[in-house]
């Protein structure tokens, strides 16, 4: 059936900005309004590649930095066939982290340039909307301590944030910065409004390819 496609909506932002909560709330609200919507998250830890990534994040395993970058990317690529299929069936996908986290986290390490980091994710389905949940390091700190996973420390997260700001300068992508210091409810309402606008706009437009 030729028809309207779903939108690809990505949530990005620093730790504790509320991406996972907002992703869940958005999918619930869209479904309640009669839309078809699914929630995805990356890394998706349940696949074999995802389990490797998970053991790296919980520090059970050490992996070389380039190798781990490629694993995160492979974890996204292994989901592309099902993502494309769902989008073309008219299902909107809400994705908790995507290639932008991939680039921001690896490029925050010593000796990694943004350009190298982008290469393996070139050609992924291009998001129709990227919501950047903005929260200052001070406000994030008020929401509790970091966990014990790799990357969960403030000096690294500050570098990650700078990489995100750099990626957000790309005007070929539809970035929207959202103030994540608002209440869960207020932020949810704003996110739902922009998500619905995007779903309307893209339904007859082809899905793009990222960074191509
Ligand atoms: P989360 O499950 O959303 O808390 O993400 C796990 C951690 O992995 C988090 O610190 C962000 C980081 N991360 C997510 N995607 C990537 C990626 O593609 N590359 C790297 N290096 N780190 C990532
Ligand atoms: Na985390
Ligand atoms: Na994630």
Automatic annotation (TrEMBL):
<comment type="similarity">
    <text>Belongs to the thymidylate kinase family.</text>
</comment>
<dbReference type="GO" id="GO:0006227">
    <property type="term" value="P:dUDP biosynthetic process"/>
</dbReference>
<dbReference type="GO" id="GO:0004550">
    <property type="term" value="F:nucleoside diphosphate kinase activity"/>
</dbReference>
<dbReference type="GO" id="GO:0005524">
    <property type="term" value="F:ATP binding"/>
</dbReference>
<comment type="pathway">
    <text>Pyrimidine metabolism; dTTP biosynthesis.</text>
</comment>
<comment type="function">
    <text>Catalyzes the phosphorylation of thymidine monophosphate (dTMP) to thymidine diphosphate (dTDP), the immediate precursor for the DNA building block dTTP, with ATP as the preferred phosphoryl donor in the presence of Mg(2+).</text>
</comment>
<dbReference type="InterPro" id="IPR039430">
    <property type="entry name" value="Thymidylate_kin-like_dom"/>
</dbReference>
<dbReference type="GO" id="GO:0004798">
    <property type="term" value="F:dTMP kinase activity"/>
</dbReference>
<dbReference type="InterPro" id="IPR027417">
    <property type="entry name" value="P-loop_NTPase"/>
</dbReference>
<dbReference type="GO" id="GO:0005634">
    <property type="term" value="C:nucleus"/>
</dbReference>
<dbReference type="Pfam" id="PF02223">
    <property type="entry name" value="Thymidylate_kin"/>
</dbReference>
<keyword id="KW-0418">Kinase</keyword>
<dbReference type="GO" id="GO:0006233">
    <property type="term" value="P:dTDP biosynthetic process"/>
</dbReference>
<keyword id="KW-0808">Transferase</keyword>
<dbReference type="GO" id="GO:0071363">
    <property type="term" value="P:cellular response to growth factor stimulus"/>
</dbReference>
<protein>
    <recommendedName>
        <fullName>Thymidylate kinase</fullName>
        <ecNumber>2.7.4.9</ecNumber>
    </recommendedName>
</protein>
<dbReference type="GO" id="GO:0005739">
    <property type="term" value="C:mitochondrion"/>
</dbReference>
<dbReference type="GO" id="GO:0006235">
    <property type="term" value="P:dTTP biosynthetic process"/>
</dbReference>
<keyword id="KW-0547">Nucleotide-binding</keyword>
<keyword id="KW-0067">ATP-binding</keyword>
<dbReference type="GO" id="GO:0046105">
    <property type="term" value="P:thymidine biosynthetic process"/>
</dbReference>
<dbReference type="GO" id="GO:0005829">
    <property type="term" value="C:cytosol"/>
</dbReference>
<dbReference type="InterPro" id="IPR018095">
    <property type="entry name" value="Thymidylate_kin_CS"/>
</dbReference>
<keyword id="KW-0545">Nucleotide biosynthesis</keyword>
<feature type="domain" description="Thymidylate kinase-like">
    <location>
        <begin position="11"/>
        <end position="191"/>
    </location>
</feature>
<dbReference type="InterPro" id="IPR018094">
    <property type="entry name" value="Thymidylate_kinase"/>
</dbReference>
């Amino acid at each position: 059936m030729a028809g309207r496609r779903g939108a690809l909506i990505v949530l990005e932002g620093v730790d504790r900005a509320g991406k996972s909560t907002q992703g869940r709330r958005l999918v619930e609200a869209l479904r309640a309004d009669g839309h078809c919507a699914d929630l995805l998250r990356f890394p998706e830890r349940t696949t074999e590649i995802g389990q490797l990534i998970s053991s790296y994040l919980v520090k059970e395993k050490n992996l070389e930095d380039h190798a781990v970058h490629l694993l995160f990317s492979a974890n996204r690529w292994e989901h592309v066939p099902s993502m494309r299929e769902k989008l073309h069936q008219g299902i909107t996908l809400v994705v908790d982290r995507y290639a932008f986290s991939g680039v921001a986290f690896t490029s925050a390490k010593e000796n990694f340039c943004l350009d190298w980091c982008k290469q393996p994710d070139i050609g992924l389905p291009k998001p129709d909307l990227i919501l950047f949940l903005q929260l200052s390091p001070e406000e994030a700190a008020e929401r509790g301590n970091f966990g014990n996973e790799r990357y969960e420390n403030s000096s690294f997260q500050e570098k990650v944030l700078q990489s995100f700001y750099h990626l957000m300068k790309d005007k070929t992508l539809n970035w929207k910065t959202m103030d994540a210091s608002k209440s869960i409810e207020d932020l949810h309402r704003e996110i739902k409004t922009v998500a619905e606008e995007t779903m309307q706009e893209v339904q007859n437009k082809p899905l793009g390819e990222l960074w191509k």
